[in-house]
Fold:
Amino acid sequence: MEAIFFQNANVRLHAIAAGPKDGPVVVLLHGFPEFWYGWRRQIEPLADAGFRVIVPDQRGYNLSSKPSGVAAYALTELVSDVIAIAIRSASPNSLSLTSRIPR
Structure:
């Protein structure tokens, strides 16, 4: 596993990455109030299966930027972060997104 960062406008997003850089990309998205660590048990098996696994800390969490104001956390802003990660990580035909709701 390696720590990487993505920039989306003025937001810096921390992420953990694993697996071959040329593998199909899987982006694992955490829910409230988690961060990348909630996916720790899934990262290695997916990477071992040949996937490039990207697990970001979404804005406001852990090592990612924490912009001020409610508008900075609107759904459109959160989606733009995921799109920025996808554009920088995968070809359009090799991307999978997965989200998680904590128990």
